[in-house]
Write a structure and sequence with these properties.
Length: 212
């Protein structure tokens, strides 16, 4: 929490995850795999302009048309296939109801999402945290890089182990997990880059790597 507080003091509140509806957030969580958010926004805007950003309309869109619309997000054929797996799960298995997808205990929701082809832990957890508002800590490459440099874990720590570190040490609160993740993204983008800018980093007084 000391790290969170220091980052919040430095960057201020991030009020993160653009997305007008839980469904849009889920689509964004799939599209953002291996790309930046700016590219995802372009793809989402294409879907909105075609008026297909709803479970049923997107489900009925042929693969080729979907792939063209989401092209700005990169890996568009793979992502179109992943979206269609998710849409099939949402529409064919859950009647198009996002509420039904997120009904029940967090662990059960997570297990159901992970069973959908193309949805891994980071994507599932992004959906659970940002679309369902349930408290699970999202781990990404920035988080691993920062926390291994800070000295909390190995570089190649597993998703499960580093997530456990957060869930044990940070109070279980969706708004807090949301903010903390967004702050780590800011640190990873602006200071803790592949070549870190430790001199100006807000965490340099508490970082193992900065003192080496
Ligand atoms: S001090 Fe350097 S290595 Fe440590 S978190 Fe900041 S940028 Fe990363």
């Amino acid at each position: 929490m000391k790290i969170h507080d220091r980052l919040l003091e430095h960057f201020g509140p991030q009020n993160w995850w653009p997305g007008d509806t839980p469904f849009e957030v889920c689509v964004g969580a799939i599209l953002t795999q291996n790309t930046n958010w700016g590219n995802v926004e372009k793809a989402i805007n294409n879907l909105k302009a075609r008026k297909v950003l709803s479970p049923k309309a997107l489900y009925e869109l042929p693969h080729g048309e979907l792939a063209v619309l989401i092209k700005p997000s990169g890996y568009f054929n793979i992502k179109a296939a992943r979206l269609r797996h998710f849409l099939s799960f949402l529409v064919a298995e859950n009647g198009g109801s996002i509420k039904r997808v997120f009904a029940g205990k967090l662990e059960d929701v997570r297990e159901r999402l992970l069973a959908v082809k193309g949805i891994g832990p980071e994507t599932a957890d992004s959906m659970i945290l940002y679309a369902a508002g349930m408290p699970i800590f999202v781990i990404d490459a920035y988080t691993k890089r920062i926390f291994s440099r800070l000295g909390f874990c190995a570089k190649d720590v597993s998703y499960h182990d580093i997530q456990g570190l957060f869930m044990k040490n940070v109070p279980s609160d969706a708004a807090l997990y949301n903010e903390y993740h967004a702050l780590l993204v800011m640190l990873g983008k602006h200071f803790c880059k592949p070549k870190p800018l430790c001199g100006a980093c807000p965490l340099n007084k508490m970082c193992a790597k900065a003192s080496t």
